[in-house]
Design brief:
This protein is mainly beta. The protein has a domain of 224 residues: Mog1/PsbP, alpha/beta/alpha sandwich (Protein Transport Mog1p, Chain A, 3-Layer(aba) Sandwich). It has two helices and 16 strands. The strands form four sheets. An eight-stranded antiparallel sheet has the order 4-7-8-11-15-14-13-12. It has a three-stranded antiparallel sheet with strand order 1-2-3, with no helix packed on it. A three-stranded antiparallel sheet has the order 5-6-16. A hairpin with a 2-residue loop joins strand 12 and strand 13. The two termini are 28 Å apart.
């Protein structure tokens, strides 16, 4: 059988500087390299790109937020670039747009021009010039889940939804896109959810983090983009708390807060912040943000509950457990 994709000792390494590894895509060497010390990192496969733009290709505008999705990009609108972090869709076809980047990020030491290494370089199958140890392939994720290796969880991909990855490294799922009512040059999505590590909060408990996050979630999903001052929905005029309760997430004790926000333009929105301890990462708290348009074109609110219920722990081999 052919050597599977993975990181292997760089066949072009000349012995100057730190030892390097190069990504083998299963059939050829790529331009992606990393310091060999990266091999000691958790084996969740190649790292996500260091920057995932928050706008849809072709618009040429800066990152959107919340259900806004502006870019190749998982966040919600909902502007998907959005809910605090751009979202890169992993699938293709339908409203999902182009394929997302699933390979490793280019290294600063990649060959000039970003092309593949010289064709005469050895392959990992050559024992004299390839890897000195047995290769290990990156994990293959369940297509019905959106993995978040950094937080040790996965989000379920419901029927009609698409999986993605946020610029912060989290997972995301979104539904159909449409031009934002307050900024037609940016795309919004009817519904979305995305995960992130709970950092920068004053609170430390699940309840405290969820209560602290909900206002920021609302503003970034339906309010003003703090980076560009764009208002995908014309801004928020008021909000109302709809729900606040304890909830079990991936076997952990979490807490959720749900608001309705009234916007100046287009549909109003429903936002929800869910905080809980990572089921696999000690001392790590996770936040999953939701943003759904209040519209018959948006997914039902029951999908929020289904996604929360479907969040699972992610094993080291990339499979949900």
């Amino acid at each position: 059988m052919n050597t599977p994709p993975g990181w292997y000792p760089d066949p072009g390494y000349a012995g100057n500087g730190p030892a390097m590894e190069r990504w083998w895509d299963g059939s050829a060497w790529t331009e992606y390299t990393r310091d060999a010390s990266g091999a000691a990192d958790p084996a969740f496969g190649p790292p996500p790109p260091p920057y995932l733009p928050g706008r849809q290709g072709g618009h040429g505008h800066s990152r959107g937020r919340g259900p806004r999705i502006a870019a190749l990009s998982v966040a919600v609108g909902v502007v998907v670039a959005a809910i605090v972090g751009g979202i890169v869709l992993l699938g293709s076809g339908g409203d999902g747009g182009g394929n997302a980047q699933t390979g490793p990020a280019p290294s600063t030491s990649a060959p000039d021009g970003g092309g593949d290494p010289a064709p005469d370089l050895p392959t990992p199958d050559n024992p004299s010039e390839g890897p000195t140890e047995s290769p290990s392939a990156p994990p293959s994720y369940d297509p019905d889940t959106a993995p978040d290796p950094g937080n040790g969880i996965s989000l379920p991909v419901l029927s009609g939804w698409q999986a993605g990855r946020s610029s912060s490294g989290g997972a995301g799922v979104t539904t159909s896109r449409y031009p934002c009512p307050g900024d037609p040059s940016t795309d919004c999505v009817r519904g979305g959810a995305f995960s992130r590590t709970a950092e920068g909060y004053k609170a430390t408990s699940a309840k405290g983090i969820a209560e602290e996050d909900i206002a920021q979630n609302a503003e970034e999903s339906y309010g003003t983009d703090q980076d560009t001052d764009r208002k995908a929905y014309g801004g928020i005029t008021s909000h109302k708390r709809l729900k606040a309760s304890a909830v079990e997430v991936a076997g952990e004790k979490g807490y959720l807060v749900r608001w309705k926000v009234v916007t100046k333009k287009g549909d109003d929105g429903i936002v929800q912040s869910v905080a809980f301890p990572s089921p696999t990462m000690p001392d790590t708290m996770v936040v999953v943000r939701f943003g759904f348009d209040e519209s018959d074109k948006a997914p039902p609110l029951s999908d929020m509950d289904k996604i929360v219920k479907g969040i699972q722990a992610l094993a080291g081999d990339g499979r949900s457990i």
